Amino acid sequence: MPRLDLSALAKQFNRLDRKGRWQFNSTDDIIARLYMQEKDSVLTEDDFLKLLVEALSSEQS
User: Model confidence over 22-33: pLDDT tens digits?
Assistant: First the structure.
């Protein structure tokens, strides 16, 4: 099963979360990571999870 590219989700998070910068390293890395650089996010856990589930669901379709 190929790894999911979450770079579009990182871009979406960056549009919504002006406090810091979201980064998705790469599907080529041993461990692909989606993370906030430097600062804490202003996104709530519920918003983060909702957007993540939506992104994963659209990748599966």
Answer: 999 988 888 888
Residues 6+ apart with CB under 8 A from 22: 10, 11, 13, 14, 34, 35, 36, 37, 41
Q: For residue 48, report the phi and psi dihedrals to the nearest 5 degrees.
A: -60, -50
Short-list 1, 36, 38, 33, CA closest to 16: 36
Beta strand pairing call for 34-37 and 21-24: antiparallel
**pTM recorded for the entire structure:** 0.80
Contact 9, 51 (CB under 8 A): yes
Buried residues in 6-41 as b, exposed as e (16+ CB within 10 A): beebbeebeeebeebebebeeeeeeeeebebeeeeb
